Amino acid sequence: MKTAMMASIGLASAKIPTRAKIKAKTRLESGAALEKFEAICQAQGGMREPARARHIHVVDATRAGVVAAFDNRRLARIAKLAGAPRAPAAGLELHAPLGTKLSPGDPVLTIHAETPGELDYARAYLRANPQIISLDGSG
Is the peptide bond before 104 cis (omega within 30 degrees of 0)? Predict the structure, then answer.
């Protein structure tokens, strides 16, 4: 489990200096990282299930490729059009992080909104800005 967790946060990468890997591994194995995470969660109101938006739209890949880049400013704009941060359940859920191989129809992200109008605004902006998520190659 800990090895999988380390890989998921990039500690298996040769790009991270050895000293940093050792420090991170020590904190993960000792439980210090979990304690810090739990303290942060408590400071923000405790561990709880996030609210569910009333309206959602899953955005699927239209072609095969590898997720190469995101335009974070435009992603933030979609989230705001969907009602974030005013509506706690509004925003984006990313299904395909950088490096993910996609086939046509694979889910890339989900837009969450409290009202149909906000969801429509967010979807219209995404349609007008298809370059928000860049795919390289054919997967």
Answer: no
